[in-house]
Every structure is written in structure tokens, then in C-alpha cells.
Amino acid sequence: MARIFSGIQPTGIAHLGNYLGAIQNWAALQEGNESIYCLVDLHAITVWQEPDALRAQTRTNAALLIACGIDPVHSILFHQSAVHAHARLAWIFNCVARFGWLGRMTQFKDKAGKDRENVSTGLFVYPNLMAADILTYHATEVPVGEDQSQHLELANDIAQKFNHDYGIAFFPTITPRIIGTTARIMSLRDGTKKMSKSDASDQSRINLTDDADTIAQKIRRAKTDPEPLPESAENLDGRPEARNLVGIYAALADARVADVLRDHGGQGFGTFKERLTELIVAKITPIGAEAARLAADPGTIERILQDGAARAAAIAEPIVREAERIVGLLPAR
Ligand code: AQP
Fold first, then answer.
1. Strand order across the beta sheet in which 76-79 lies
2. Is 218 part of the annotated catalytic residue set?
3. Which residues contact 27 (CB under 8 A, 6 or more apart)?
4. Rounded to an integer, what is the distance from CA 145 to the centroid of its chain?
5. Does 32 belong to an annotated binding site?
6. ipTM of this complex
7. At which positions is motif 'KMSKS' region (predicted)?
């Protein structure tokens, strides 16, 4: 039985990319493992969040995770800021990770853009907090989308440097569980950009709370090119929007891209988009409905998160105390 950790930022509402790239696997991985799933609100505030919106999104995403099949009795589900071990270990990792390592993170480069002077320092050290999230549980398995693999390599580099500097095999090696063919879902407006909660255009993503009409409208308006669908996967090269829609279809139908093209190759996008809408609506709308039912009782969601935080802290606290002792900090009491 492995201990699994993964997280999602409450920077908006979880979307189809989060679902296919991460959450559906989190649900599957509960079986036979000890799973810890976290709403990483400390990560979220590395870019500006409206405080009330952040609170609401944290609750909504908790409800969505449960609606996607995360069982808060079997798994530990909580919000990051409630377990102080994360921030304490992240500070130690700020002192272990090298500046140059962080400067090479492509997610930082993407999110900071050209205006490096004005991004928060939190955004720069984001991967150190992510390493702390995982390692404060001595978790060894991390199911994430392919976009997070560089951060996981960095977490292993931090763990190794810590172990080497202090001469003790304290932190384990993390194994990323990158999710196969459906690893990266792209924006509906631009097939070269990933689908993202914080994209200014709501049309760029399918939120897990979208109703059937909204989904149909977003897919109808999704960017495509004028050619019909090709009959083989090689002919998707240079057609990022077509590749993305076919990829989404394949993921939802649990089919290979080649099989989708065998069935739909030669079709115009009009017909294909209708079939794709049916698949998305069938998968997503029951999740949204269940989340709305759960969110109608915010007290229950808060109790679930508090219970999760207490169970998470019981695992994390001794590990972070030992890390503090190893580096030479006196015990708090
Ligand atoms: N487009 C995507 N395709 C596949 N997987 C994705 N993930 C995110 N976007 C996609 C995976 O979802 C998990 C949770 O992501 P996150 O909330 O921690 O952060 P993110 O990757 O930065 O997600 P967003 O939606 O793009 O948020 P913002 O806009 O706030 O940056 C991760 O496992 C991630 O791989």
C-alpha cells in the first residue's frame, strides 16, 4: 500500500483538464492506497485572489472532488493552510533548493511572463512548497498531469540534497504517476495553451459545474480549422485544436486516438462536436449536480475539511518536527 499525495489549487473552478489529467485518477487510486488530497490554497495566493472568491472556490472544489468520487472517509481531504507543517517544511526547502534550479522551472517562466519584477516571490518558490506538500507526509506516489513532472523532479532533487547535506536518508524518492494519453488538455480557444482555471476566458474551458447548455455552447464555439477530421493520428500534426478535441473524445470514451479517427475521420467538426458534447455532458453534468447538492450545506463541507486537516496533521507533524530537529532547530516545546 503506497501513500499518495496530490493537490489542486482553488484558483477557480476545477475543469475538464483537471478532471482528466488528475482527479479521475485520484478517485481510482484510493483503492488499496492511503490517499491524501489537498486544496492547495497557499499555492493559490502566489497570484492575486479575491479573498471571498478564494474561500468560496475552496469549498466548491472540495464539493467537486467528493462528487468526482473522492471519499473523505477513506481518503484525507483538507485545505493546505489548515496544516502548518506544509509552510514550515517549505521554509526549510527554501533554504535547501538552489536559486538556479527554480529559475529553470517552465511553469514559473510561463506564469511570470516577461514582467519578472512584479511577480510574487511566492510564485518563484512555489515548487519548494509543492515538494513540502508531498514530503511532509513521506508520500511516495504523486498522481499529476504531465505539466507537473518538472516540479516533481525538483522535489526529488530537494529531497536528495537534504538527505546528502545532513547525512541521513530521511526523505524518500517520489514516483510521479503521469496519466497516459490524456495527460494534457488544451484550451478550447487556443490548442497550444493548456486548459486553465485562471484563463481570463471562461470559453476556454469546461468547468465541472457547467450545465449541458453551457457545455454545448462552449464546444460549438471551440476553435477548429476548416479541414475535416483526418483518418490517422499523424495527420493531426500542425492541427493543435483538432488534436485537442480528438484527445478529449478519446479520454472520455476510454478509446485510443486512432480508434476515434477510424470512426470519425472524414467528418466535419459540426457532427463531431455534437458527439463530443454528448460525451462531455454525460460525464460532467452528474458531477456538477452532486457538487451543488453537497455545497448546499457548507457546514458539512467545512466539517469534512476540518476532520481531514486533523488527520493530515497527525501524519505531518512528527515528520516536520524531525526535519526541524535534523537541521538544528530547537523544539517549539
Ligand atoms: N489542462 C490540463 N490538462 C491536464 N491536467 C491538468 N492539470 C491542470 N491543468 C491541466 C492537472 O490538474 C491538477 C491540479 O492542477 P492545479 O490546480 O494544481 O494547478 P494547475 O496545473 O496550474 O491548473 P490550472 O487549472 O492551470 O490552474 P491555474 O490556472 O490556477 O494555474 C494537477 O495535477 C495538474 O497537472
1. 76-79, 34-39, 3-8, 141-144, 175-178
2. no
3. 68, 69, 70
4. 7
5. no
6. 0.96
7. 194-198
Could you tell me which residues come within 8 angstroms of residue 308 by beta carbon, excluding any fewer than 6 positions away?
Answer: 72, 76, 77, 78
- Establish whether residue 176 lines the binding site of ligand 1, counting it when its CB lies within 6 angstroms of any ligand atom: no
Distance CA 99, CA 124 (A): 9
Give residues with Cβ within 8 angstroms of 162, minimum separation 6.
92, 93, 96, 170, 171, 323
C-alpha 213 – ligand 1 centre gap (Å): 24
Q: How many CB atoms lie within 10 A of CB 317?
A: 15
DSSP structure class, residue 187 = P
Of 292, 259, 260, the residue nearest 275 (C-alpha): 260
pLDDT in tens, 161-205: 999 999 999 999 998 877 655 568 999 999 999 999 989 999 999
Helix and strand numbers, DSSP H then E, in the chain = 15, 5
**Pocket flag, ligand 1, residue 127 (CB < 6 Å):** no
Confidence at residue 79, expressed as pLDDT on a 0 to 100 scale: 98
- DSSP code of residue 200: S
- Convert the pLDDT of each residue in 48-88 to its tens digit: 999 999 999 999 999 999 999 999 999 999 999 999 999 99
What cell was used for 330? Answer: 530547537
User: Residue 194 Cα, ligand 1 centroid: separation in angstroms?
Assistant: 8
Find the 80 Cα to ligand 1 centroid distance in Å.
Answer: 16
The whole model's pTM is what? Answer: 0.94
* pLDDT at residue number 182: 53
Residue 107 neighbours by CB under 8 Å, 6+ apart: 126, 127, 147, 150, 151
120 is in an annotated binding site: no
Over 33-62, what HEC string results?
A: CEEEEEECHHHHCCCCCCHHHHHHHHHHHH
Cβ–ligand 1 distance for 198 under 6 Å, the answer yes
* Mutation to probe ligand 1, out of 4, 15, 18, 35 (largest number of atoms < 8 A from CB): 18
- Respond yes or no: is residue 194 known to be catalytic: yes
Residue of 114, 161, 193, 194 marked active site = 194
- Tell whether residue 283 is among the known ligand binding residues: no
Atom 34 in ligand 1: which residue has the minimum CA distance? 145
